[in-house]
Structures are given as structure tokens and as C-alpha cells.
Design goal:
The chain is mainly alpha-helical. It contains 2 helices and no strands. Keywords: Coiled coil, Metal-binding, Zinc, Zinc-finger.
Length: 101
């Protein structure tokens, strides 16, 4: 009876160690996923004209923004690629509004 109880206690210790290891792995994975979130504007509303000028300046000013080296603070983070039409491949519209047939 004592030997069986010792065996159960030993298994319990092993299970607790495994649970602790898995929780640490889960915390690491969760931390990685948290870094992938998009930035959210915190400054209030922005007018359409101002936003259009800002986007135009970004597109024309950066020759290839996706090649930038990223950092943790987000200052040099690469911008997402501009969406393109599925029919003709041009930027600025989508396949539903494409005028080329």
C-alpha cells in the first residue's frame, strides 16, 4: 500500500511539472500572437482629404516600403502591401469594381 501511494505521488509530481511546462509554452505563444496585432488610430477622426494626401505621400515617398527592417517600437515597421484587383492586377480598385472586361 505504501509503495503504491509513493508511486501515485511521484506521478502527481511529474504531471504537475508537465502542466507547468505547457503553461509556460502557452504564455510564450500568446505573447507572440499579441505582437501581430494591427495598430489602431488613437488621435480621433481624420478627414478624407487629409487621409488621401497622407496615403498618396506614403505611396510616392517610399519606393519599396516592405523591405524595411522592423523593430519592436514600430518606427521602422514594414507597411502592408497595397491591395490589387484580382482581374487586372492594378491597385486602387477590386475585382467587383474593375472596368476592364
Amino acid at each position: 500500500l505504501i509503495k503504491g501511494a509513493e508511486e501515485i505521488l511521484h506521478k502527481n509530481v511529474l504531471i504537475k511539472a508537465r502542466v507547468k511546462e505547457l503553461k509556460e509554452q502557452l504564455a510564450e505563444i500568446t505573447k507572440r500572437k499579441g505582437r501581430k496585432r494591427k495598430r489602431i488610430q488613437t488621435g480621433g477622426t481624420i478627414e478624407y482629404g487629409t487621409a488621401a494626401l497622407y496615403v498618396a505621400a506614403e505611396v510616392s515617398g517610399a519606393s519599396n516600403p516592405r523591405k524595411k527592417v522592423g523593430s519592436r517600437d514600430g518606427a521602422n515597421r514594414a507597411l502592408p502591401a497595397q491591395r490589387r484587383c484580382g482581374n487586372c492586377g492594378e491597385a486602387g480598385h477590386n475585382a467587383r469594381t474593375c472596368k476592364k472586361d
